[in-house]
Inverse folding.
């Protein structure tokens, strides 16, 4: 799954680790955060709900998702620069 929207990268990583979701996120040049996430369906639902709500200091404008191929042997969630 992929997501994009204004939010804190470290909040996203914290939530991914909390739910056992793997993948990555990074800032874009247009002040958004994008990335990909994979995991069990129920974990992804919880993860995306929290990311869509965002941290208190952020304003989430839009969360978009799209299906992607699974990345084999992915074991963690990272913040890319």
């Amino acid at each position: 799954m992929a997501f994009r929207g204004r939010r804190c990268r470290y909040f996203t990583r914290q939530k991914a680790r909390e739910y056992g979701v793997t993948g990555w996120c990074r800032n874009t040049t247009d002040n958004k955060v994008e990335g990909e996430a994979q995991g069990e369906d129920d974990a992804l639902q919880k993860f995306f709900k929290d990311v869509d709500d965002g941290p208190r200091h952020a304003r989430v404008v839009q969360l978009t998702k799209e299906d992607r191929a699974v990345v084999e042997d992915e074991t963690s969630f990272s913040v890319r620069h």
